[in-house]
Amino acid sequence: MELRRSKRGQVTIFVIVAIILVAATIIYFLARGSPSRVDLSPELSPLYNHFLSCLEEDSLLGIQILEQQGGYIEVPEFESGSSYSPFSSQLDFAGVHVPYWYYVDFAGRAKEQIPTKTMMEKDLANFVSREIENCNFDDYYAEGADIQFEGAESKVEIIDGEVIIKMDLDLKLSKANETAVVRTHEVIVSSELAGLYDSAKQIYEKEQADLFLEKYAIDILRLNAPVDGVEIGCAPEIWVANEVFVNLESSIELNTLALRKSGELIENEEDAYFAVDLETDYEVRFLNSKNWAHSFEVNPSEGNLLLAEPVGNSAGLGILGFCYVPYHFVYNVNYPVLAQVYSEEEIFQFPMAVVIKGNKEREALPAVSSGFYESEVCKYHDTLISVRTYDKNLNPVLADITYECLGESCKIGNSSEENLFFPQCVNGNLVANAEGYREQIVSLSTVDEGSMELIMDKEYELGIDLKLDSKDYNLNAMIIFISPEFSRTILYPQQKTISLAEGEYEIQVQIYKNVSLTLGSTIQEQCVDVPRSGIGGFIGLTEKECYKINLPEQTITNALSGGGKDEVYVLESTLENSNSIVIDVESFLKPVTINQLQDNYNLLEEKGANIYFQ
Predict the structure, then answer these.
(1) How far apart are CA 460 and CA 475, in angstroms?
(2) What residues have CB less than 8 Å from 172, skipping those under 6 apart?
(3) Is 11 exposed, middle or buried (0-12, 13-18, 19+ CB in 10 A)?
(4) Whole-angstrom distance, CA of residue 475 vs CA of residue 61
(5) With left for phi above 0 and alpha for psi between -120 and 50, is residue 153 left, alpha or beta?
(6) In whole angstroms, how far apart are CA 536 and each of 64, 528, 530, 547?
(7) Which of 341, 372, 403 marks a domain boundary?
(8) Closest Cα partner for 216 from 158, 188, 257?
(9) Assigned domain for 292 exists
(10) Does residue 259 share a domain with residue 187?
């Protein structure tokens, strides 16, 4: 009987403890669910309620700034971009400077600046501590009240659905002979900041792990620009780089806006293509603008032209009876994407740089990382080298200096600086660029200190006056300027100017006219040497093995019908005193057979050109 009473007593104790815990929990959450209440007289309560309203308004304003500026109120120090990377450290979005979470700095280094939740809490705490001092009590002062406070210290907690602000501040309130001092203050505001931030981090980490934005970028590039392929024809294929870039700008802007999170209504294959696998209850939007800083580069290029030469129509290849134009262009593409995560009333946004290098996406960073990554080549600038640049009269020329080594380009400075420090490298290239002068590239080893003096060649812009059989010609032509340091192709008449410096040039003109030339399908035999079977192959003997190639019928609509070439040496004095260069070439018979087409290419090698300046 004693044992049974003991067990019954233990049960009673457990029940009492459970009731106390439940009550304590209810009291805690009730206290947490509303701002701290202070018992004040009817005279002083309106003053304190106004103070709490100010604190709440400041908190909501700070949360809005955090969400607009990618989790920052005090943004990191601004870092400008450069010609090597268009990104600064911040994206200007409708006048709001939003720090990039990922970008490539002026020297080509990858950097991250992702705020943590603790950083946001500290930023918001400092913000409300400053802003509370601007709380306007003028109406109460007019009624004879006195409010004194200074030196606020705040703590912030960002949790699901709420932001809790606790402030330590000696607030002295006086009115109608009544005085009270309140030292601790608390407000709780409803906000989706925590959830929006967590979803933003999920998007960022997915991008760093999967590079989904870069994969879309490569698709956009291949669909809207010449990358690689083969065209059937005997005339060169030519694209204007600026037109390609304008098309890319518009395509990137539209395709970025089409991205959406998976789980939204998908009605067709196009919707499925643009769906991004994101597990978030919030809405997601991706933005790009052609007006934001970006850069496109393409190689090989001839000035502003992308040129692909045909195969099968050169002199000596007439037996082919078939022409085709292979091309392969390599692009570097950099542009920003602004990700927005939003609910009905709040939007959290942050930008990321999308980087395509050599037609391929950049290397992915770890899903969670901080700091920055940089090229090892450009990381250490240890070698002092003096660089001076002059024109031909030995007048100083201000030039930007870069250094190329192992495929990396390192920004060094400019020639006006007394001390320039270079990374150590054997057989790198020093590159000097100055406005109005031709780029100078010289081989330079930077293992030891030294000095370098460069003479910059001044360029002069001239108009191009093309003549065919001594008559003005304004139809399609390709004009090529070639020198040991310079090569430029002009698509005429779309382009009618050329910038030249003193030097020797080979100038070649190719004129193309519309034709209707059909090349029938042919079968050609190709033979190759292959190792003999048996012991003969073992000792290196070979035998011919032949196979047949079917060449389909081909219709040529554009063919070489005139041109010529010549070599000239151009003095700077001639360029300085001339406005245009006149090039006069002869016409050829319009080809109606493949043999006549080959004859025209043979003529191009033989015909000269009359070139003079005026």
Answers:
(1) 25
(2) 146, 147, 148, 149, 179, 180, 181
(3) exposed
(4) 63
(5) beta
(6) 82, 17, 11, 22
(7) 372
(8) 257
(9) yes
(10) no
- Do 108 and 378 touch, CB atoms closer than 8 A? yes
- The parent domain of residue 258 ranges over 213-372
Q: Are 22 and 155 in a shared domain?
A: yes
The answer to whether residues 527 and 390 belong to one domain is: no
List Cβ neighbours of 47 (8 Å cut-off, separation of 6 or more).
137, 140, 145, 147, 173, 175
pTM: 0.65
Looking at residue 310, what is its pLDDT?
Answer: 81
Residues linked to residue 497 through DSSP beta bridges, in sequence order: 463
Residue at 203 is within a domain: no
**Do 510 and 576 fall within a single domain?**
yes
* Residue bearing the bigger pLDDT, 479 or 548: 479
pLDDT digits (tens, 9 = 90+) for 545-554: 665 555 556 6
CA distance 129 to 127: 5
Kindly report which listed range (264-278, 378-392, 442-456) carries the lowest average pLDDT score: 264-278
Domain count for the chain, please give it.
Answer: 4
List Cβ neighbours of 329 (8 Å cut-off, separation of 6 or more): 225, 226, 227, 228, 298, 299, 300, 301, 306
Residue 132 contacts residue 185 (beta carbons within 8 Å): no
**Could you tell me if 453 and 485 are in contact, meaning their C-beta atoms sit under 8 angstroms apart?**
no
Residue range 280-304, pLDDT digits in tens: 899 999 999 998 989 899 988 877 7
d(CA 129, CA 343) in angstroms, rounded, equals: 28
- Co-location of 433 and 535 in the same domain: no
232 and 363, same domain (yes or no): yes
- Pull the structure tokens for residue 538: 């073992």
Residue 214 and residue 270: Cα distance in Å, rounded? Answer: 18
CA distance 199 to 206: 11
Q: How confident is the model at residue 410 (pLDDT cuts 50, 70, 90)?
A: confident
Q: Could you tell me if 320 and 521 are in contact, meaning their C-beta atoms sit under 8 angstroms apart? A: no
Backbone angles phi, psi at 395, to 5 degrees: -85, 140
**Tell me: the pLDDT tens digits for 424-454?**
888 889 999 999 999 899 999 998 999 999 9
Taking CA atoms, 379 is separated from 85, 108, 445, 446, 529, in Å, by: 16, 10, 17, 14, 51
For residue 359, give both structure tokens.
């037609």
At 3, is the pLDDT very low, low, confident or very high (cuts 50, 70, 90)? very low
Token output for 76 = 């990191």
Instruction: Report the sign of the C-alpha dihedral through residues 316, 320, 321, 325, in that order.
Output: negative
How distant is the alpha carbon of residue 310 from its chain centre?
A: 33
Q: Considering the domain boundaries, does residue 591 fall inside one?
A: yes
- Dist CA 603 CA 561 (whole Å): 10
Query: Is 348 inside any structural domain?
Result: yes
